[in-house]
Design a protein that fits this description.
Thrombin, subunit H; five-stranded mixed beta sheet; 6 helices
Length: about 220
């Protein structure tokens, strides 16, 4: 597993306690270069480093966050202390259960689609919010919408204009907002359960050909 940080000594003790042997990379560019030669089983990502990475590299990190076990980190205070946003023990368990694999890049394609988003518990779509889908890949996408959804929450996305309008089950993997106004601009979604026919339609109409044998995350 890989840690995106320029201060690896801040993580050594925690990683040993978790039973993990990380590789460290000081930048998104160097991390992605490492992934060309080495398989991965999870990522520890410092949020500030991700958000200050160049756009294409940041997009690839978002894609990794949709597929692999993820532990997000904030740096706090003048001493830049490590603050974990996710449960380290849960992350460690997921990494050990996750077979290391080579990274397949599923490029995000800009689109402008409309849909409805609601919580997974709202099976009848009684209280959805309008959503604009601004990009897509075979494993997820970015939606811009109002609403109070949490990181990791499961949601249902109904994409308008699809031949099969069955809601796609997804989870929120990252959020993009404006803290000053406390407005949530949107969410990065990971598809947990998308029908093969829906994935084929998205590929044919928007994403382009998928890799041979690629079934998509959570296809069912």
């Amino acid at each position: 597993m890989f840690v995106l940080t320029d201060r690896p000594w801040d993580y050594d003790a925690d990683m040993r306690q978790l039973g993990l042997t990380p590789s460290y990379a000081p930048s998104a560019h160097l991390l992605l270069e490492e992934l060309l030669e080495h398989p991965a089983s999870g990522f520890v990502l410092e949020v500030d480093k991700v958000m200050h990475s160049p756009g294409p590299e940041r997009d690839q990190l978002f894609q990794l966050a949709c597929v692999f076990p993820l532990l997000r980190v904030l740096r706090k205070g003048q001493d830049r202390a490590v603050a974990y946003l996710d449960d380290p023990d849960g992350f460690s368990s997921r990494v050990r259960a996750f077979p290391a694999r080579e990274v397949r890049h599923c490029g995000r394609v800009p689109v402008l689609l409309h849909g409805l988003l609601t919580s997974s518990e709202d099976e009848s779509f009684a209280s959805p919010v309008r959503a604009n889908i601004l990009d897509l890949s075979g494993v997820g996408g970015f939606v811009s919408c109002p609403g109070d959804f949490d990181f990791g929450q499961q949601v249902q996305l109904r994409i308008e204009g699809m031949e099969d309008s069955t809601p796609v089950l997804a989870s929120i993997r990252w959020r993009k907002g404006e803290a000053r106004k406390r407005l949530l601009h949107g969410f990065g979604l990971h598809f947990e359960n998308i029908r093969p026919g829906q994935l084929r339609e998205l590929a044919a109409r928007f994403i382009g050909p998928l890799e041979a044998g690629y079934a998509g995350a959570g296809a069912a």
